[in-house]
Amino acid sequence: MPILDASASTLLVVDFQARLMPVIEGADAAIGNARRLLDAAAKLEVPCVFTEQNPAGLGGTVEALSAPGAVLPKMTFDATGSLGMLDHAPEDRAVVVAGCEAHVCVLQTVLGLLEAGRTVYVVRDAIGSRRIENKEAAVRRMERHGAEIVTTEMVVFEWLGTCKHPRFREVVALIK
Protein backbone atom coordinates (compact mmCIF):
# COMPACT_ATOMS: atom_id res chain seq x y z
CA MET A 1 0.00 0.00 0.00
CA PRO A 2 1.52 3.35 -0.98
CA ILE A 3 -0.15 5.31 1.86
CA LEU A 4 1.51 4.99 5.26
CA ASP A 5 -0.55 3.52 8.08
CA ALA A 6 0.58 4.28 11.64
CA SER A 7 -0.54 0.84 12.80
CA ALA A 8 1.71 -0.79 10.20
CA SER A 9 4.81 1.46 10.47
CA THR A 10 8.08 1.50 12.38
CA LEU A 11 10.21 4.65 12.66
CA LEU A 12 13.93 4.01 12.24
CA VAL A 13 16.23 6.83 13.42
CA VAL A 14 19.74 6.26 12.06
CA ASP A 15 22.88 7.67 13.72
CA PHE A 16 21.87 11.15 14.86
CA GLN A 17 24.96 11.18 17.06
CA ALA A 18 26.57 13.91 19.14
CA ARG A 19 30.00 13.97 17.48
CA LEU A 20 28.61 13.66 13.96
CA MET A 21 25.94 16.37 13.97
CA PRO A 22 28.21 19.46 14.06
CA VAL A 23 29.48 18.64 10.53
CA ILE A 24 26.11 17.80 8.95
CA GLU A 25 24.72 20.33 6.46
CA GLY A 26 21.31 21.45 7.74
CA ALA A 27 21.64 19.39 10.93
CA ASP A 28 19.23 21.55 12.94
CA ALA A 29 16.45 21.12 10.37
CA ALA A 30 17.01 17.35 10.13
CA ILE A 31 17.02 17.01 13.93
CA GLY A 32 13.89 19.16 14.21
CA ASN A 33 12.03 17.03 11.68
CA ALA A 34 13.21 13.80 13.31
CA ARG A 35 11.91 15.18 16.63
CA ARG A 36 8.52 15.88 15.01
CA LEU A 37 8.42 12.33 13.67
CA LEU A 38 9.32 10.90 17.09
CA ASP A 39 6.64 12.99 18.81
CA ALA A 40 4.01 12.00 16.25
CA ALA A 41 5.08 8.36 16.53
CA ALA A 42 4.68 8.50 20.31
CA LYS A 43 1.18 9.97 20.05
CA LEU A 44 0.14 7.46 17.36
CA GLU A 45 1.81 4.42 18.95
CA VAL A 46 4.33 3.86 16.16
CA PRO A 47 7.33 1.89 17.46
CA CYS A 48 10.74 3.56 17.18
CA VAL A 49 14.19 2.07 16.73
CA PHE A 50 17.47 3.98 16.96
CA THR A 51 20.88 3.00 15.62
CA GLU A 52 24.24 4.33 16.74
CA GLN A 53 27.33 3.89 14.60
CA ASN A 54 30.40 3.09 16.72
CA PRO A 55 28.94 4.86 19.79
CA ALA A 56 32.28 4.74 21.62
CA GLY A 57 33.75 6.92 18.87
CA LEU A 58 30.76 9.06 17.78
CA GLY A 59 28.83 9.29 21.04
CA GLY A 60 25.20 8.45 21.64
CA THR A 61 22.09 9.84 19.99
CA VAL A 62 21.79 13.60 20.43
CA GLU A 63 19.83 14.61 23.50
CA ALA A 64 17.22 16.45 21.43
CA LEU A 65 16.07 13.11 20.02
CA SER A 66 15.92 11.06 23.19
CA ALA A 67 12.78 8.95 23.14
CA PRO A 68 11.67 5.47 24.07
CA GLY A 69 12.72 2.78 21.67
CA ALA A 70 15.35 0.14 21.10
CA VAL A 71 18.89 1.47 20.60
CA LEU A 72 21.03 -0.75 18.42
CA PRO A 73 24.78 -0.08 18.47
CA LYS A 74 26.50 -1.08 15.25
CA MET A 75 29.84 -1.14 13.52
CA THR A 76 28.51 -1.89 10.03
CA PHE A 77 27.20 0.97 7.93
CA ASP A 78 24.16 -1.11 6.94
CA ALA A 79 22.13 -1.50 10.14
CA THR A 80 20.51 -4.66 8.80
CA GLY A 81 23.86 -6.32 9.52
CA SER A 82 23.37 -5.58 13.22
CA LEU A 83 22.07 -8.28 15.48
CA GLY A 84 18.31 -7.99 15.81
CA MET A 85 17.74 -5.09 13.39
CA LEU A 86 15.36 -6.98 11.12
CA ASP A 87 13.44 -8.20 14.18
CA HIS A 88 12.57 -4.54 14.80
CA ALA A 89 11.43 -4.13 11.19
CA PRO A 90 8.98 -6.98 10.53
CA GLU A 91 7.99 -7.64 6.93
CA ASP A 92 4.40 -6.53 7.54
CA ARG A 93 5.43 -3.02 8.66
CA ALA A 94 6.68 -0.12 6.55
CA VAL A 95 9.99 1.29 7.76
CA VAL A 96 10.08 5.10 7.89
CA VAL A 97 13.73 6.21 7.91
CA ALA A 98 15.34 9.40 9.21
CA GLY A 99 19.04 9.86 9.92
CA CYS A 100 22.64 10.55 9.00
CA GLU A 101 24.67 10.33 6.92
CA ALA A 102 22.31 10.00 3.99
CA HIS A 103 24.95 8.67 1.61
CA VAL A 104 26.55 6.21 4.04
CA CYS A 105 24.56 4.60 6.86
CA VAL A 106 21.10 5.72 5.74
CA LEU A 107 21.74 4.63 2.13
CA GLN A 108 23.27 1.28 3.03
CA THR A 109 20.58 0.56 5.63
CA VAL A 110 17.80 1.44 3.18
CA LEU A 111 19.36 -0.78 0.51
CA GLY A 112 19.70 -3.58 3.08
CA LEU A 113 16.06 -3.20 4.13
CA LEU A 114 14.93 -3.26 0.50
CA GLU A 115 17.08 -6.33 -0.16
CA ALA A 116 15.41 -7.99 2.87
CA GLY A 117 11.98 -7.34 1.31
CA ARG A 118 10.93 -4.42 3.51
CA THR A 119 8.86 -1.45 2.34
CA VAL A 120 10.89 1.70 3.00
CA TYR A 121 10.00 5.39 3.19
CA VAL A 122 12.93 7.82 3.43
CA VAL A 123 12.06 11.16 5.02
CA ARG A 124 14.01 13.57 2.83
CA ASP A 125 13.81 16.53 5.21
CA ALA A 126 14.90 14.38 8.18
CA ILE A 127 18.14 13.04 6.69
CA GLY A 128 21.48 14.76 6.31
CA SER A 129 25.04 14.50 5.04
CA ARG A 130 28.16 16.62 5.40
CA ARG A 131 27.69 17.83 1.83
CA ILE A 132 24.36 18.45 0.12
CA GLU A 133 25.44 16.78 -3.15
CA ASN A 134 26.06 13.52 -1.25
CA LYS A 135 22.57 13.71 0.26
CA GLU A 136 20.96 14.39 -3.11
CA ALA A 137 22.82 11.54 -4.82
CA ALA A 138 21.78 9.19 -2.00
CA VAL A 139 18.12 10.24 -2.28
CA ARG A 140 18.14 9.58 -6.03
CA ARG A 141 19.82 6.19 -5.56
CA MET A 142 17.46 5.06 -2.78
CA GLU A 143 14.45 6.07 -4.87
CA ARG A 144 15.83 4.29 -7.93
CA HIS A 145 16.10 1.09 -5.90
CA GLY A 146 12.53 1.24 -4.61
CA ALA A 147 12.40 3.48 -1.54
CA GLU A 148 9.57 6.00 -1.37
CA ILE A 149 10.85 9.53 -0.77
CA VAL A 150 8.60 11.49 1.56
CA THR A 151 8.65 14.53 3.86
CA THR A 152 7.90 14.86 7.55
CA GLU A 153 4.49 16.39 6.87
CA MET A 154 3.59 13.64 4.39
CA VAL A 155 4.37 11.00 7.03
CA VAL A 156 2.43 12.77 9.79
CA PHE A 157 -0.70 13.35 7.71
CA GLU A 158 -0.63 9.81 6.29
CA TRP A 159 -0.25 8.38 9.79
CA LEU A 160 -3.28 10.44 10.86
CA GLY A 161 -5.35 9.48 7.82
CA THR A 162 -8.22 11.82 8.65
CA CYS A 163 -8.95 15.12 10.34
CA LYS A 164 -11.40 13.12 12.47
CA HIS A 165 -8.54 11.21 14.13
CA PRO A 166 -8.88 11.62 17.93
CA ARG A 167 -5.31 12.95 18.20
CA PHE A 168 -5.48 15.15 15.07
CA ARG A 169 -5.13 18.53 16.77
CA GLU A 170 -2.23 17.58 19.01
CA VAL A 171 -0.35 15.80 16.22
CA VAL A 172 -0.86 18.62 13.70
CA ALA A 173 0.40 21.06 16.32
CA LEU A 174 3.80 19.34 16.06
CA ILE A 175 4.30 20.58 12.50
CA LYS A 176 2.80 24.05 12.70
Write a structural description:
- With 176 residues, this protein is an alpha/beta fold.
- The chain has one domain: Isochorismatase-like (Rossmann fold, 3-Layer(aba) Sandwich), CATH 3.40.50.
- 35% of the residues lie in helices and 20% in strands.
- The chain has a 6-stranded parallel sheet.
- β4, α3 and β5 form a beta-alpha-beta unit.
- α3 runs parallel beside α4.
- The longest helix has 17 residues.
- It is globular.
- It holds the Pfam family Isochorismatase.
- InterPro entries: Isochorismatase-like_dom, Isochorismatase-like_sf, Isochorismatase_domain.
- It comes from Jiella pacifica.
- This is Isochorismatase family protein.
Sheet with most strands: strand arrangement: 3-2-1-4-5-6
Poorly predicted residue ranges = none
CATH topology: Rossmann fold
Our Rg estimate from Cα atoms comes to 15 Å
Using the 3D structure, state the CATH architecture. Answer: 3-Layer(aba) Sandwich
Order of helices and strands: EHEHEEHEHEHH
- What general outline do the C-alpha atoms trace? globular
- Residue-averaged pLDDT: 95
Query: Separation of termini?
Result: 27 Å
Major sheet description: 6 strands, parallel
Helix-and-strand structural type: alpha/beta
Number of strands: 6
Q: Kindly give the count of domains.
A: 1
By CATH reckoning, the class would read: Alpha Beta
> Count the helices. How many?
6
Organism: Jiella pacifica
Pfam family, one: Isochorismatase
Protein name: Isochorismatase family protein
Domain Isochorismatase-like: 10-153
